[in-house]
Amino acid sequence: MSPSQSCPSSPRTTSTSRPSRPVSVAVTGGIGAGKSELLHAFERQGAAVVSSDDIVHTLLRQDPDVKRAVVERFGEEVLGPDGEIDRSAVARIVFSSRRQLKWLEELLHPLVVATYLRWREQLAELDEPPEVCITEVPLLYEVGGETRFDTVVAVTASPDVRASRKVLATDRRGSRLIPDDEKLRRADFAYVNDGSLKDLDAFAADVMARLKG
C-alpha cells in the first residue's frame, strides 16, 4: 500500500441525511504511527479536531475528582512542584504495572468518551457547524469504540520510521494493541505514514473531499 492509498471500503457517513451534524471520524493506529500528525493534517484541511490524550491531560489537571482519585491511588509522588498531576510520574507507574494501568484506564476511559461525545454535540449546535469532526482514539478497536463514529481512519508506519520517532518503549499498551494489518483492513481509510508532511496533507485532503462529497 502506498503512503497516500486509502482503503476501498466506503465511509459509514450519514452526512447526507443529517447535513447539520458533522461527520464524526476517528483516527487510530499503533504506537509511533503518527496519529497526532495526521490529526494536525486534518485540522489544516478545516476539520474540527480533538485528541483523547489532550482530554486526559485536561481531566488530570482540571477535574478534582480525577485528581483526588489518582493521588489516593498512587500517592503524592505523582504531584509536581505546582501541585498538579505530573503525567510523566503517572506514566512511570502505570507502564510498569498492568494492574495500575488497568485501574487508570477504567477511571479515565468513560470520562474521555463522555467528553468527546459532548464536544461533538456542541459542534452540531453551532449556527455553522463544521462538516467534519475528528477524534484521535489510540485504543479504538481494542475497546469497541468504532461504533461511536461514522468513519474510521487508521494510520501505520514501517518499523524503521517508528524507531526514529519518540516512542515510550515501556508503554504497556503495545502488548494489547490489535495488529496494524487488522486495523487497516477494518478501517474506512488507511494511510502508511512513511512519507513527508506534504504526503500526509495530501492524504488528509483526499479523505476530507470524499467525506464532504
Tag the structure with descriptive keywords.
213 residues; alpha/beta; Rossmann fold; 5-stranded parallel β-sheet; 8 helices; 5 strands; disordered N terminus
Write structural notes for this entry.
- There is one protein chain.
- This protein has 213 residues and is of the alpha/beta class.
- It has one domain (23-212): P-loop containing nucleotide triphosphate hydrolases (Rossmann fold, 3-Layer(aba) Sandwich).
- It has helices at 35-44, 52-62, 64-74, 87-94, 98-124, 159-163, 180-186, 197-212; strands at residues 23-29, 48-51, 132-136, 151-156, 189-192.
- It is globular, with a radius of gyration of 18 Å.
Which fold name is given in CATH as the topology? Rossmann fold
CATH architecture group name: 3-Layer(aba) Sandwich
The CATH superfamily bears the name P-loop containing nucleotide triphosphate hydrolases
Q: Mind telling me the CATH class?
A: Alpha Beta
- The portion of residues forming beta strands comes to 5-15%
- Report the principal-axis shape: globular
Largest sheet: 5 strands, parallel
Round the mean pLDDT to the nearest integer and report it.
86
- Computed over alpha carbons, the radius of gyration is 18 Å
- Find the count of extended strands (DSSP E, 2+ residues): 5
Work out the count of structural domains: 1
Residue runs with pLDDT of under 50 for 5 or more positions? 1-18, 168-172
With strands numbered from the N-terminus, the spatial order across the biggest sheet is 2-3-1-4-5
Overall structural class, as computed from helix and strand content, comes to alpha/beta
Report helical residue fraction.
Answer: 40-55%
User: Helix tally?
Assistant: 8
Cα(first) to Cα(last) distance is 24 Å
Oligomer: single chain
Order of helices and strands: EHEHHHHEEHHEH
